[in-house]
Amino acid sequence: MFILCRLWDLGQQRCVHSYAVHTDSVWALASTPSFGHVYSGGRDQSVYLTDLSTRESVLLCTNEHPILQLSLQDDTIWVATTDSSVYGWPAEGQTPQKVFQKGGSFLAGNLSFSRARASLEGSAPVPVYKEPSFTIPGVPAIVQHEIMNNRRHVLTKDTVGSVKLWEITRGAVIEDFGKVSFDDKKKELFEMVSIPAWFTMDARLGCLSVHLDTPQCFSAEIYAVDLNVTGAQEDLKINLAHETLRGLLVHWSKRRPKPGPHSLSNGDSSIGKDVSLKNLPHPRSDVDDGSENHANNVLPSFEFSTVSPPSIITESSSGGPWRKRITDLDGTEDDLPWWCVDCAENGRFPKENTKCGFYLHPAEGSPAPNITQGKLSAPRILRVLKVANYVVEKLVLEKPLDGSPDSTFAMGLTSGTSALDSSSRLGLKPWQKLKPSVEILCNNQVLSPEMSLATVRTYIWKKPEDLILNYRVVQSR
């Protein structure tokens, strides 16, 4: 970066002239075909035209943003700034002398501080042109963002002040709030839910960049019914990173040549190892149906647009980064990280600890008996309603389960406990239809049935120790 524009004689290998016209760093230059005149722009948001022979300069135009690139085409100088739009200004490229005839020119000195001092003293030149001849509008850049508590939505604000809500798992705007207060909208959209952080994000490029790193990205799960998955079982859990990767790589998977029975899957070339995926110790996903076309079946909440598709940026085997839109992937890319391929194609990924340990005791003053001994554990996303149902069944059956310390609270996806099997034989209603006859409390606060254990721990318990829940019998409604 420099404030002085310097003219060099390459044959003599020395600077023959310097032109002090800008008050800040010069970032872009463009010359006329005869190289008699030069257009310059930079951090001071101004474009100057300078006659290299007479040292005469004139302020051609000013912009609202620092100037990054200049391109002269016939009688138009195209200006690219830190804004996303491109502007075309009159330049008289064939006859630049006409610009000087409009007045306002000055003699470019040798010392840059003279131009800066003139600007501070109020004697800065007036631009020849006030408005551009052409404008190619760009997409407003994102300047502020906030990841919402559900870890699927992100609130953003762009350079024109528009506030939007994005769904990260689809890479799409789901609501445009217009020019409203970003902070007020963030408070309005607040949800008392707790989902592990499974990605990081920045907006340094003016757009949202989402970063996934294994194994941390596989820590977040959500019930399929919360994603409105048609026909999903009540307890079916979806791993957010798993389904997002399948959505991103669906075009790659469809076009990928099918390997032979003895061929090795893609190795992790970035660390210099040739790894066979079939020998990796990762378990299969809970939501993997095992079908051959599983990689091509993407849930609606994870379908990315083909009109404005996102791009994947990763490291190549040689160490250099590459970038491709997901619709441009042709299946021959061998530089995708092996863990992404294994997850998208085979449904295998490292299992993070998604359990929450807790104790379940009668509430103080409640006549209800103690139905458990020791610590229980359950998925973090398990709802309080499930805990209430568990207590009801234990009280009805009057037959405690295995009460050994650190026993597993298995009210989840695949197999039920012996209490659930017994309740079916007794003709009890399914838990979805059973009106709760108990209340679950934490810190003497009655919990909403829709709360998850993770939400209770984060917003109600607020302690590093294992969660303690209490129950009490209430009159059936």
TrEMBL record:
UniProt-listed Gene3D superfamilies: YVTN repeat-like/Quinoprotein amine dehydrogenase
Family annotation (InterPro entries): WD40/YVTN_repeat-like_dom_sf, WD40_repeat_dom_sf, WD40_rpt, WDR48, WDR48/Bun107
SMART domains xref list: WD40 (SM00320)
Protein name from the UniProt record: Transducin/WD40 repeat-like superfamily protein
Chain segments annotated as transmembrane: none
A Gene Ontology molecular function term of the record: ubiquitin binding
Alphabetized Pfam families for the sequence: DUF3337 (PF11816)
Keyword Repeat: yes
Region (Disordered): 253-295
PANTHER family: WD REPEAT-CONTAINING PROTEIN 48
Gene Ontology terms: biological process: double-strand break repair via homologous recombination
This protein's record includes keyword Hydrolase: no
Keyword annotations: Repeat, WD repeat
Highest taxon listed in the record's lineage: Eukaryota
